Amino acid sequence: MPKVVDHEERRSRLGAAACAVLSRTGVAGTTVRAVAGEAGMPLATAQHYLPTRELMVRAAMAYLVDRVVRRARALPTGPSALETLRLAVVQLVPLDEERIFESRVWLMLTAEALIDEQIAAIMRENAVELRANLARLIDLARADGSIAADVDVPQAAGELATVLDGVTLRLLYAALSPAEARAEIDTHLTRLAARP
Predict the structure, then answer these.
(1) Do 92 and 160 contact (CB within 8 A), yes or no?
(2) What is the maximum span of the chain, computed from C-alpha positions, in angstroms?
(3) Residue 135 is part of which domain span?
(4) Does residue 45 sit in the same domain as residue 120?
(5) Helices (H), 26-116
(6) What does pTM read for this prediction?
(7) Which of 13, 81, 112, 158 could bridge 27 with an S-S bond, Cβ 3.0-4.6 Å?
C-alpha cells in the first residue's frame, strides 16, 4: 500500500524550520539544505516543496501568519468591539518569547525586503492583509459605538499598523518595556474611542 503523505503538514514543518533558520542566521544563511536539516527531512524532499528562496520565504511567512491567526481565533471577545480590537493588536507585538521569535523573523525579512524585490512584494501583500484585518475590527467597533462614528476606517487602520510597527521595533531592542508598549497601544486606541 502506498504511503499517504500529508503535504500540508510537510509545508508547515518546512515553514517552521525556515523560521528557525532565519531567526539564527538571517536570510543569507537560509538555504534549502539548512531548512531541510532543521526540519529533519531529506534534502530532495525539501527541494520538492521549496525549490526557490522565494518559496522558502513564503513558507516562513505563511507559518508565522498561521500562528498569529490561530492565537487570534482563540481570543475571547471583549465587552465591546474596541476591547476586542485591543486584545487582538496586543497579540501582534513581542510581549512574550513566542511573539519575540515571530517578530525577529519578521524583522529580518523586512530588512531583506530593502534589497530584494521578491521579498518586498511578499511583505507588501502581508501589510495589505494586516491593514484589511485591522480595518475590519475598527469598522466593527465603529458599528457598535465604541469607536467614534466619524473615524476614517482605512486611515485609522494604517495609523494603527504604523504604531504597531514602531512598538514592535522598540520592544525588540529594549527601548520600551512591555508595560510601556501596552500603554502606548492603549493611548492610541483611546483616541479612536467614542466620546460619551
Answers:
(1) no
(2) 68
(3) 75-196
(4) no
(5) 32-39, 43-49, 53-74, 81-90, 97-113
(6) 0.85
(7) 112
Residue 104 included in any domain: yes
Structure confidence at residue 161 as a pLDDT band (50, 70, 90): very high
21: left (phi over 0), alpha (psi -120 to 50) or beta: alpha
* 8 assigned to some structural domain: yes
Query: Rg for the chain (alpha carbons), in Å?
Result: 19
Q: Residue 119: enclosing H or E segment and its boundaries?
A: helix 117-143
Nearest CA among 25, 40, 23, 26 for reference residue 97: 23
Query: Which residue in 79, 187, 92 sits closest to 130, CA to CA?
Result: 92
- Secondary structure class of 147 (helix, strand, coil): strand
Give the residue from 194, 193, 69, 47 showing the smallest Cα distance to 126.
69
Structural domain includes residue 70: no
The cell for 159 is 495609523
| Mean pLDDT (whole number) for 139-161 | 94
